[in-house]
User: Which sequence fits this backbone?
């Protein structure tokens, strides 16, 4: 059975794709869909529950939660996509070089990757934020650096698995440059696991960005980042639970969607499952 057909038969994976697609669509259309300015304060509506005018209610400063949720999705998507793109741009070439050349190059690159992997992901991101400071671009860099080791290690292992195959030996015998062999012949043949890992890393990036913002080390107020929204409203959980639960539920659904989609891709393209109908 072709991988794409196996993927389409995976209902949890399709549910994940729907959740991710909705998330991306809402983030892209936030300026058109948000009914209010996400930073507009209306203290008279402070902690107001959902109503006809404000479908998801208001937060501790009277700001419309729906508008902040939509703009927060835009910020979250920008950070997570940028972080994974940075990790791929840095980690994949390093992993390819380590896996293809082997020897000293492999030892140096693998040693550096192992040092980074020795740190828990959130602590590594915290260290980068502490060095470079706050802001969306710096937070994206911090999460991207945190994801580089995973992408590099995957590319290295995949490249080691194909570098000695006949078609690689043939291209080498024809005089192709090593860089051409790595990026034109090896990389296209190891993209499936990389795409799967990138999808799963998007979930990690969204959660890490929200965690750092919740701790006050990510996107700073009044920007409507989901982790910051939860942090600012958690003190009012007993009197206005909606202000905390709604962004928390949105975060949970998005992370779950990326994980379901990534798991479905992994199952569909797992070599162990090929030929099984």
Assistant:
């Amino acid at each position: 059975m072709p991988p794409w057909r196996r993927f389409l038969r995976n209902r949890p994976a399709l549910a994940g794709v729907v959740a991710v697609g909705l998330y991306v669509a809402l983030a892209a259309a936030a300026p058109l869909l948000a009914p209010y300015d996400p930073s507009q304060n209306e203290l008279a509506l402070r902690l107001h529950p959902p109503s006809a005018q404000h479908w998801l209610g208001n937060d501790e400063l009277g700001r419309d939660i729906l508008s902040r949720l939509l703009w927060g999705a835009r910020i979250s998507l920008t950070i997570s996509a940028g972080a994974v793109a940075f990790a791929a741009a840095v980690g994949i070439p390093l992993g390819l070089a380590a896996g293809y050349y082997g020897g000293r190059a492999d030892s140096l690159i693998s040693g550096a990757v192992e040092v980074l992997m020795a740190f828990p992901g959130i602590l590594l991101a915290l260290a980068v934020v502490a060095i470079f400071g706050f802001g969306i671009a710096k937070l994206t860099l911090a999460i991207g650096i945190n994801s580089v080791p995973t992408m590099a290690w995957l590319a290295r292992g995949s490249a080691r698995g194909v570098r000695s195959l006949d078609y690689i030996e043939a291209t080498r015998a024809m005089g192709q440059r090593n860089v051409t062999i790595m990026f034109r012949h090896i990389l296209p043949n190891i993209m499936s696991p990389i795409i799967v890992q990138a999808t799963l890393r998007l979930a990690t990036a969204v959660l890490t960005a929200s965690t750092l913002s919740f701790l006050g080390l990510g996107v700073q107020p009044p920007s409507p980042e989901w982790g910051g929204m939860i942090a600012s409203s958690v003190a009012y959980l007993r009197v206005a639970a909606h202000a905390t639960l709604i962004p928390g539920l949105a975060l949970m659904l998005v992370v779950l969607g990326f994980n379901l989609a990534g798991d479905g891709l992994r199952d569909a393209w797992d070599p162990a499952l090929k030929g099984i109908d």
Q: What stands out?
A: The chain has one domain: 3-32+62-273.
